[in-house]
Write a structure and sequence with these properties.
Layout: H1 2-13, H2 18-23, H3 25-39, H4 45-68, E1 75-77, E2 84-85, E3 88-89, H5 92-108, H6 115-139, E4 143-145, H7 152-171, H8 179-198
Antiparallel strand pairs: 1-4, 2-3
Helix pairs in contact: 1-8, 3-5, 3-8, 4-5, 5-6, 5-7, 5-8, 6-7, 6-8
Length: about 200
């Protein structure tokens, strides 16, 4: 996982290879999902239902967001995330799964705090990560904002939606500790932080 992100950084930061690496983004997301899936212990029904719930919730929230412009603001998806249904990349639900499972897995290693405390901290972490993702996503045509600026509304919506998704995840009875998912969260923070510094 770490090697793939290091190679990805090199590809994104090189003007001669960036177009090639952008085409690999959908495959990268699927590979990260596969790694998390393989590392998951005790894949019970609750685990699969949690996956499906977060995937569908993420996809349809994005659909409502794009079509109504009331949730995140006025934005539209570009071509980087691959095949779309109703103008929404099918992989955006996978992206929500990676983020939510990463945060919930990381929080499961924290030995203190109530469920509500962890969910609230997790939602803040999600917003901080989105803050790093947004400029990179716009630059590399993941999505774009109509005004050219990322609205505060987007981050407020991210907090609320992330809080609800994490709350739902913690309600499901399956093994939350997944080292691969937790490491992916850290790697994503570093990946997007470096791109924010060096890709602009």
């Amino acid at each position: 996982m770490i090697v793939f992100h290091i190679v990805g950084l090199a590809g994104f930061l090189n003007a001669q290879t960036v177009s090639i690496f952008l085409k690999l983004v959908p495959f990268h997301l699927l590979l990260m999902f596969l790694l998390i899936y393989v590392d998951q212990a005790n894949k019970n029904n609750a685990f699969f239902f949690a996956l499906l719930t977060i995937y569908l919730s993420g996809f349809f929230i994005e659909l409502a967001g794009v079509k109504t412009e009331l949730i995140f603001g006025k934005y539209a998806y570009g071509s980087t995330l691959g095949i779309k249904l109703w103008d929404i990349p099918l992989l955006i639900g996978i992206n929500w799964v990676l983020l939510v499972f990463g945060v919930s897995s990381a929080l499961s290693y924290v030995p203190f705090g109530s469920k509500y405390f962890k969910v609230s901290i997790g939602a803040i972490v999600m917003v901080l990560l989105d803050r790093l993702i947004e400029p990179v996503a716009v630059k590399f045509d993941y999505w774009s904002w109509q005004s050219g600026r990322i609205p505060l509304q987007n981050y407020l919506a991210w907090f609320v939606i992330s809080w609800l998704m994490l709350f739902v995840i913690f309600r499901f009875k399956f093994e939350k500790r997944n080292a691969t998912a937790a490491v992916l969260l850290l790697v994503q923070f570093l990946f997007f932080a470096i791109l924010n510094k060096w890709a602009f």
